[in-house]
Amino acid sequence: MREISKGANVSLTALSEDAGSVVVSLGWSSASGAGDADVSVLLVGEDGKVRSENDFYFYNNPAAADGSVQLLGKTPTDSGDEDRIGVDLTAVPEEVARIVVAASQYGGTRFGDLDGLRMTVADRSGEPLVGFSIDDASVETAFIFGELYRRGEEWKFRAVGQGYETGLAGLATDFGIAVEESEESEEPEEPEPAGEPPEPGVAAEPQAARTTTAGTPGPAGSPTAPAAPADAGTAGPAVSPATPQAAEGAGTAGGPAAPVGRPPAPGAAPGAVVPAQARGPRTTRKKVTLPKAPGKSLAENESWRPARLFPVPSLKSDKEREVRATSVLLSVMAQVPEFGRRLTAAFGAPAGRMQTFTEVSLPHGDTPRRPDGVIRVERAGKLWTALVETKTNGNPLRPEQVQQYMDIAARRGYESVITLSNDVALEGTAMVDVKVDGRRKHKVGLWHLSWAEVAHQAQLLIRHEGVGNAAHAWLLQELLAYLQHEQSGCHGFQNMGPAWVPVRNGIEDETLCLGDPRATEVVESWERLIRQVCLRLGGELGQKALPVQRVRRGSDPRSRRAAAAERLCLDGRLSAELRVEGTSSVIAVTADLRTAKIRTSVDVPAPEGSYPLVTVRRLVRLLAEAPADLHVESLVEGENGPRGTLERLRPEPGDLVPRSGAALTGFRLTLIKGMGNSRGNTESGFIRSVDEAVDRFRQGVVAHLGPLEARAGRRG
What we know:
By secondary structure, this protein is of the alpha+beta class. The protein has 15 helices and 26 strands.
């Protein structure tokens, strides 16, 4: 991979013969675990402006109708998060001269708060071509990382690194998008209960004023930039094109531009006003989303089971499960374009007509080989082909089999080999070891999908984002029902591996030695489990959920896992943190193998300037529906704060106030649950215990914390 500096450019065609479709990645890490940013893409003409609102892509408008741009979402890496964008350069309209790739901050944070800001461009096979690191970020709330631009018949990449103190609003204005600040709506203040001491000298704050941006926002340091940066922690700016052509197009096929504000955090108070920004872009085609509450069944009794498109109970062997699962998945991918495109875009597939096949015979020496499936996508007379190798029921992938398919794909000019199993891929750890012949000009990408990721994408579409028609929604629902059936064998990661029992026994009887390689295997299994928990949470909530890595970008993942294995040997604990996109709460999960307990916790900051007793009483009110066994601890500077269960604190919330008078900085809320004893494939398994612990904590505790966070900057 070629590293370039700010302002430099390089030809993508010169770096790869397979650069017609690229994957652009923006990465960063955060020491606090709460830092994040949203990516956006603008298609710009020769005049430096967007042609219309349809040339602006962000989380509320993530894909182009022609398949030229698709935001693929965030992916966890070993040193933070990475946001990926698929760009089919062969599909970009001729009148587009540049593709600008940017990111913006929200929640009052700045890019200087993030570490390891970096942009990379990879070709269709996943081979990194060029990288650019930004090391001078400070107060900017938006950044143009780089741009892809035309030079004759080729595409080039330029490292830009231009920051804006005026956020997404300032950046959008520079490219011909008019920005108006929308009205901020704020939840009414709860009345304090009788007998609670008022705070002297604190006047009520006036209602937020309605404003519009003044002047012409420019790059960071520009004297014409507005003083107040766009902060997506409040209601964000609404965006519409400034060009007359765009104004004339309002209400037509493309609809007006989608607003750019952040959606409300999950768990917001019921009845809160949802800003227009959270409603998504207007389109002429109605999106079909399944209702949250299923309709009343017409069955006479509970023993009746609805008819299913993909029946499962007759499956008897692993081979039958693999054949059925492959056929079911590939057929739905071909019939539901939104779903098929979602799964293949990250692998460099273009947007086009998709056909899928099973049990295809391909020549390989004296004995033909039969991959489980083949995916072909046609666009502009060109074919993109991927071979699919499937495993179900926890069966491992066989390296020699995958190697054969890689060799066949290279000889026949196919683009990719996709492996599909219950296992979850880890950054820096290959699912299977294969050899690549570097003498071949044609490169083949090797990609992996977990069945949990397939279910995650189906959930996002049918429960949150919607698909084109009711038939597509029904097909996805039937696919999801199939994947979740106990006989399908497609349940995702569900076994901690052969090292789990020996390591757990070694911790219990204190015979596990430092440096035992089995501890590292358990740490890797734990990471896979946490990533699967994040996939499941994201599908249920409709927001990305990602593991938090508090390490600097570029750190060696093997060294980090070795350090985690050493801690496991010393204190018998497995620890992880995860965060749901759009929230500032970081949920910590700790499995203590010595005590057989799982702890889930979150730290809640105390509002600045408020009286401790007022803050404590407000917290107890917010947790009125939380489990009675919730442990609440006051966080106090320089000392251990008071603590107790919610059951004991409800009648006496003042017990949480520090007796020493030390400053109260926040609270730590913790639930403790017993741990399953088996390897994870039964009801009492460890993996199921972790799932249940995270679900109970999120639903019973975290979902009620939105109002306290919203008042974190106010007194009282």
